[in-house]
Design goal:
Layout lengths: L2 H29 L19 E5 L14 E5 H16 L21 H8 L1
Antiparallel strand pairs: 1-2
Amino acid sequence: MSADTDREFIARLRRERELRMRGYREQALRLFPPVCGRCGREFEGKRLRELTVHHKDHNHDNNPPDGSNWELLCVYCHENEHSRNSVADWYDEASPGTQPASVSTYNPFAGLGALLKKKE
């Protein structure tokens, strides 16, 4: 593919994504009241743009016409929802029965008993 073809392809994908998103956002705004599903703030007028559609199953292609996979969240709660998942993944514990990748063997009090006995 040439650079022009790549740019045209990417531009077309972006346009299609924007149209798809606009479609389900408008549909969600018709189905649900303009209230954040987490913090309960109400939105109207220009502030309505701060209300986003969150996919409950995180699959942006799952857009049933009844809106059962959507919830309206303000931009702050939406960001919190997605960052919460990434933080949980970051701190995810090792599977049972496996050794964590790095285990510290340093013991800051290892020689404390001997030092205390010398002082006596």
